[in-house]
Amino acid sequence: MEYRYLLVVRFALFNIVAFAAQFAGYMEGWLDGMFEGATFLMTLGIFIVFMFGLIACGTKIWRTSEELNDLKTGMPGPESRAGKYLAELELHDGESRSIKSQMVRLKLSNRIAIVRHTANSLVFLGLVGTVIGFIVALSGVDPQTISSAKAVGPMVANLIQGMSIALYTTLVGAVLYLWLIVNHRMLASGTVNLINTIIDLGEARVRT
Q1: SS3 string of the chain?
Q2: Distances (CA, A) of 15 to 24, 55, 62, 183
Q3: Residue 172: which residues within 8 A CB-CB, separation 6 or more?
Q4: Upper half-sphere CA count for residue 61 (Cβ side, 13 Å)
Q5: Which of 1, 3, 117, 187 is deepest in the core (most CB within 10 A)?
Q6: In terms of Cα–Cα distance, which of 135, 119, 137, 133 is closest to 46?
Q7: Cα–Cα distance for residue pair 43/71, rounded to 1 Å
Q8: What is the pLDDT of residues 29-61, one digit of tens each?
């Protein structure tokens, strides 16, 4: 029972370290550029999507961990996926049990797909931010006034703002994608363990 919530502990430790590293970067001033104007709005939107994925992942890791704990005691909840599978198992022959086990694999694998889709969306949002940043940067460039000393200053400022949006959104999208995909790997590993445990327990009950 010492390792009942090992999956949850791994999830918690990894994210505590990741948030601590993020806070350290903020204290060092490495993230100051993200809190300016339109850059802040773009990166905030990406971060909100990331937090949705992280919360969804954490919820599913907790649920998977609880189901694994129940299976280890041999008494899964009647409303859980494992409980329903085991309750129906004795009513089917070998071929039907094989089909049932494949259905369990598909349903449990589909349950975690939203986390992977959310992680992938972070990359696309970062790329969208990159495009928007270049549009902002280039929208302030006027070839007709580029030779005017007075016009150079505003154009350079606009160019810097656009490049800031482009670079920060790309960086944030990529880093948060890697962060969330590591969590997804932990969830996927726990889900595979859950699927194998359900099927092994079902076959053991049939044989007895």
Answers
A1: CCCCCHHHHHHHHHHHHHHHHHHHHHHCCCCHHHHCHHHHHHHHHHHHHHHHHHHHHHHHHHHHHHHHHHHHHCCCCCCCHHHHHHHHHCCCCHHHHHHHHHHHHHHHHHHCHHHHHHHHHHHHHHHHHHHHHHHHHHHCCCHHHCCCHHHHHHHHHHHHHHHHHHHHHHHHHHHHHHHHHHHHHHHHHHHHHHHHHHHHHHHHHHHC
A2: 14, 11, 14, 8
A3: 34, 43, 46, 47, 126, 129
A4: 25
A5: 187
A6: 119
A7: 42
A8: 888 888 888 888 899 999 999 999 999 999 999
Residue in the block written with tokens 């905030």 = 44
Neighbours of 47 (CB within 10 A): 17
Domain ranges for the chain, please list them. Answer: 6-207
pTM here? 0.84
- What confidence tens digit (pLDDT) does each residue in 63-88 have? 888 888 877 776 666 666 666 666 66
How many angstroms separate the CA atoms of 105 and 120, rounded?
Answer: 22
Tell me the average pLDDT of the chain.
Answer: 83
Q: Which two tokens stand for residue 34?
A: 């993200």
Helix orientation angle between 149-207 and 37-73, rounded to the nearest 10 degrees: 10
What's the token pair of residue 202? Answer: 């079902």
Contacts of residue 112, defined as CB under 8 A and 6 or more positions apart, other chains included, come to 60, 184, 187, 188, 191
Q: Which amino acid is at 105?
A: R
